[in-house]
Design a protein that fits this description.
The chain is 80% helix and 0% strand. The protein is mainly α and 249 residues long. α2 runs parallel beside α11 and α4 packs across α10 (196-204). It is globular and about 50 Å long.
Length: 249
């Protein structure tokens, strides 16, 4: 099997450990699986090769979490964000030829880190609760996805800014990522990104990912719910700083 994956035994073991940790965080927070896999797994596999692998891992997490996500999520919020994102992605892709990907990613991630810190300081952003704020966040997420590939962090930031229960925030993120992963498969197939090697690696990492998600779901309980939002905001800041550091190096 290792030969089929074009990985050494140690490389696969490292990826499996990363997949478990990423699944653990995803199970608790509802997001960040792909960000962690790409950030940590790039030492083993080129980032571009990790993108289709992450699709399998995201779908695994979604399959384990979508039932509770559908039950808890605010459907209006989820579909508003997803619809806006679908409009924004083509716009972002049109800008990719005119804007440096690294520069745009640095700008996008810097804004995300700044806004996450603002939320940690408990500064309210009431405009996000409006219809314009909802669809604007969705479109912005799509544009940033098309240019810099970090649109999911915009959605997480928006959801965390809502004045609602932790379970509803988490459920909204779960449902948004499920819809995004479903629609992104078409893009991967059209552009030939989902090749047999990527599919084999993704399938091989399903078990450690699922184990992590199940463990993370068990951590999300009433006792820890008060810490959910601060944890997720700190996670966004940490992911943002890690991304900026990687780009700088």
């Amino acid at each position: 099997m290792i030969d089929m994956l074009a990985l050494t035994t140690s490389e696969f073991a490292i990826l499996a450990m990363i997949a478990f940790v990423a699944g653990l965080v995803r199970g608790f927070s509802g997001f960040a699986l792909s960000a962690i896999v790409v950030a940590a797994g790039a030492t083993v596999v080129p980032p571009v090769a990790l993108i289709p692998i992450c699709w399998w891992l995201e779908m695994t997490a979604s399959a384990l979490m979508v039932r509770s996500g559908w039950r808890e999520a605010d459907k209006h919020t989820v579909f508003g964000l997803a619809g806006g994102s679908m409009i924004g992605v083509p716009i972002g892709l049109m800008f990719t030829t005119a804007v440096s990907p690294d520069v745009s990613k640095i700008a996008a991630v810097s804004v995300i880190v700044l806004l996450a810190i603002v939320q940690l300081a408990k500064v309210r952003m009431p405009f996000l609760a409006t219809r314009a704020g909802l669809y604007g966040s969705g479109v912005t997420s799509g544009i940033v996805t098309g240019i810099a590939g970090v649109g999911g962090m915009i959605v997480a930031l928006y959801v965390l800014a809502l004045d609602t229960r932790a379970s509803k925030m988490r459920a909204a993120l779960v449902m948004y990522l499920f819809i995004s992963a479903t629609t992104s498969l078409v893009t991967f197939l059209l552009f030939g990104i989902m090749d047999p090697a990527a599919a084999s690696r993704g399938i091989a990492l399903i078990i450690p990912t699922a184990a992590g998600v199940i463990a993370g779901k068990r951590l999300f309980n009433a006792k820890l719910e008060p810490y959910y939002k601060p944890f997720c905001l700190c996670l966004l800041v940490a992911l943002g700083i890690a991304s900026l550091t990687r780009l700088a190096l």
